[in-house]
């Protein structure tokens, strides 16, 4: 694991979800910590966000949470992290998460998780970065991958010529936790300079 030392994880803050997704969050956190990979995430203590952070912390790796002030006021900020950064806006939060991570992993989540995924995916399409994006599509208790409808939509967008076929290489779908670290190791190191200006 030479080029990836920190991973940004996007995931949901909801707690009353399929236990399989909760187990996936904890499992991913343990996996990252065992590999010595630090976590960057949205700073919450609830839902899958809290579970992945707790697992990384328990494994001895560094966790950086980045949360906007208005959310921290609702006491959803995780106070047991290595580092909790309180910022002014959601936009600042997302840019700092992007800047601090070497790769991105997407666990099940809601509208916010989708918004984060599509933004970082669009940034990659626009060559603002070329960091790996892994969509972790582990099955729920019903046996179906949570992100199956999303990957179908992405393929539909390409099939309808709203995106070029080569854009399918911007992300990778992973269906097993055991495949996460090999996928990160196999990803080429980023070539986009870190000083690239944001649009």
Strand and helix map with partners:
Layout: E1 6-10, H1 19-34, E2 38-41, H2 47-58, E3 63-68, H3 69-72, E4 83-87, H4 90-100, E5 103-106, H5 111-125, E6 133-136, H6 148-159, E7 172-174, H7 180-186
Parallel strand pairs: 1-2, 1-5, 2-3, 3-4, 5-6, 6-7
Helix pairs in contact: 1-2
Question: Can you offer a commentary on this structure?
Answer:
The chain is 39% helix and 16% strand. The chain is α/β, with parallel strands linked by helices. The chain has a seven-stranded parallel sheet with strand order 4-3-2-1-5-6-7, sandwiched between helices. β2, α2 (47-58) and β3 (63-68) form a beta-alpha-beta unit. The longest helix has 16 residues, at 19-34. It is globular and about 45 Å long. The relative contact order is 0.17.
Q: Tell me the helix content.
A: 25-40%
Tell how many strands the DSSP assignment holds: 7
Question: The biggest beta sheet, please?
Answer: 7 strands, parallel
What is the general shape?
globular
What is the CA–CA distance across the termini? 30 Å
Instruction: Give me the secondary-structure category.
Output: alpha/beta
As a whole number of angstroms, the C-alpha radius of gyration is: 16 Å
| Beta-strand content | 15-25%
Give, in spatial order, the strands making up the sheet with the most strands: 4-3-2-1-5-6-7
State mean pLDDT (0 to 100 scale): 92
Tell me the series of helices and strands, N- to C-terminal: EHEHEHEHEHEHEH
Helix run count: 7
Uncertain segments are none
